[in-house]
């Protein structure tokens, strides 16, 4: 078949929509890989034990390049043999973000990345440098200037650094660059120092604890809505707010008096959640959009796991047992999958918890401490009572005790602290 005839047939297939843009791109990729394979002078081998393909680095025979598939290996070799038009980090952000969706089940993570991208990186000079021209010195200069410009703490830097770090890794894995210079980054400027907050702002002390519980009971006695007792219970269980909202009667064992923490309610961006990628999660029940939220920018959803993707069982102390008995007696027809703290057709949500806390704090004339401070109060009271740190960690659902230590403050009033100090030096 003559070349012109072949060309004409291909053009007809394209114009008749028999071949779409994606197919054309796949053909181009296949032809590029064949070209790279011809140009590469070293053997390409398969390692059965590692289930991976490997070959010698074209610039250094003593170094290997290894990838899971032959195609990925040829893509990694491409920069060594084929000059391409300049590609910038700016160009591959959306491509990387699409890839990121496939390796995380949290739409909120994607939203956070997009938010940080717009604030710190989008359109800046560093992200306009051709990828193959970026040197370690460029990265060092950019990173240190960014930290100074925004006066970043170490924690803030580690959070936003995830984006360029993973974009460079993606660029290398997909053949945009031959080597990744990002791991050689050195931060030499000082981070903003962050002091640990005071106990007064982080936990409810003994007086506040008793007063706010009394106020919440008064609200319950007046309105008979379980939501008020949800906060009282959480002073006694220390759950994440989303875990508290997601509690169902089937999670509570009223014989052993244990409660299983297996899922969580979270607030998600509706636009991100509408991405077709999440359809499979919604269809399988891994993500359940709660009713009554049509048209909202942010929606409450139930996830089939907790924040750390681990289930835990915590003991229910006597005071909490009495609350659960009361709620159960008031809802004799409740089904196993009904929410414990639901009322009528309504369900407890994160905003409701904080609204109730704000209302109660005003009643007792104390500064507002929001829902996460309940967990810190729970941890701090257990610590003050002498419960071993690792047991507190297990109850909170932390993966390590370092995180748990960050939750522990002084839950005592100044008078209680002084009394203990006096006793310590009494003899």
Notable characteristics:
427 residues; mainly alpha; DNA polymerase, domain 1; hpI Integrase, Chain A; 3 domains; three-stranded antiparallel beta sheet; 9 strands; 10% strand; elongated; Site-specific recombinase, phage integrase family
Structure in words:
One of its GO terms (biological process) is DNA integration. The protein has helices at residues 3-15, 21-39, 70-81, 89-102, 107-121, 136-150, 154-173, 199-202, 206-223, 227-237, 241-245, 270-273, 279-284, 318-329, 350-363, 372-384, 389-396, 401-405, 414-424; strands spanning 45-47, 52-57, 60-67, 252-253, 258-261, 264-269, 287-289, 298-303, 312-315. Helix 2 (21-39) crosses helix 3 (70-81) and helix 4 (89-102) packs across helix 7 (154-173). It is built from 19 helices and 9 strands. With 427 residues, the chain is mainly alpha-helical. It has 3 domains: 3-81, no CATH class; 89-184, Orthogonal Bundle (DNA polymerase, domain 1); 202-263 and 305-421, hpI Integrase, Chain A (Orthogonal Bundle). The strands form 3 sheets. The protein has a 3-stranded antiparallel β-sheet, covered by helices on one side.
């Amino acid at each position: 078949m003559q070349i012109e005839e072949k060309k004409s047939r291909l053009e007809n297939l394209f114009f008749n929509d028999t071949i779409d843009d994606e197919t054309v791109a796949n053909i181009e990729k296949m032809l590029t890989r064949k070209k790279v394979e011809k140009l590469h002078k070293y053997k390409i081998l398969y390692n059965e034990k590692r289930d991976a393909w490997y070959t010698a680095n074209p610039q250094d025979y003593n170094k290997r390049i290894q990838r899971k598939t032959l195609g990925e290996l040829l893509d990694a070799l491409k920069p060594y043999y084929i000059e391409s038009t300049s590609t910038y980090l700016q160009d591959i952000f959306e491509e990387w973000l699409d890839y990121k969706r496939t390796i995380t089940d949290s739409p909120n993570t994607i939203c956070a990345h997009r938010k940080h991208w717009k604030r710190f990186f989008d359109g800046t000079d560093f992200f306009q440098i051709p990828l193959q021209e970026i040197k370690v010195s460029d990265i060092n200069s950019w990173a240190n200037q960014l930290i100074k410009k925004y006066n970043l703490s170490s924690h803030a830097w580690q959070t936003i650094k995830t984006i360029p770090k993973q974009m460079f890794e993606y660029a290398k894995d997909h053949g945009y660059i031959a080597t990744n210079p990002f791991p050689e980054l050195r931060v030499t400027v000082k981070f903003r120092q962050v002091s640990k907050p005071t106990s007064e702002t982080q936990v409810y002390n003994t007086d506040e604890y008793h007063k706010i519980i009394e106020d919440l009971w008064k609200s319950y006695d007046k309105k008979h809505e379980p939501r008020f007792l949800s906060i009282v219970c959480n002073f006694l269980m220390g759950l994440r707010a989303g875990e508290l909202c997601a509690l169902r009667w089937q999670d509570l064992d009223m014989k052993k008096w244990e409660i299983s923490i297996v899922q969580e309610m979270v607030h998600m961006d509706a636009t991100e959640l509408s991405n077709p990628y999440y359809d499979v999660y919604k269809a399988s029940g891994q993500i359940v959009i709660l009713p009554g939220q049509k048209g909202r920018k942010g929606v409450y959803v139930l996830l089939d796991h907790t924040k750390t993707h681990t289930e835990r069982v915590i003991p229910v102390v006597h005071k909490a047992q009495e609350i659960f008995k009361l709620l159960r007696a008031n809802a004799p027809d409740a089904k196993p999958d009904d929410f414990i703290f639901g009322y009528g057709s309504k369900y407890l949500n994160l905003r409701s918890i904080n609204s109730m806390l704000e209302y109660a704090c005003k009643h007792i004339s104390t500064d507002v401490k929001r829902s996460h401070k309940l967990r810190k109060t729970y941890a701090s009271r257990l610590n003050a009572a002498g419960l071993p740190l690792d047991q507190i960690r297990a109850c909170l659902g932390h993966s390590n005790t370092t995180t748990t230590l960050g939750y522990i403050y002084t839950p005592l009033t100044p008078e209680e602290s002084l009394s203990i100090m006096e006793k310590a030096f009494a003899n």
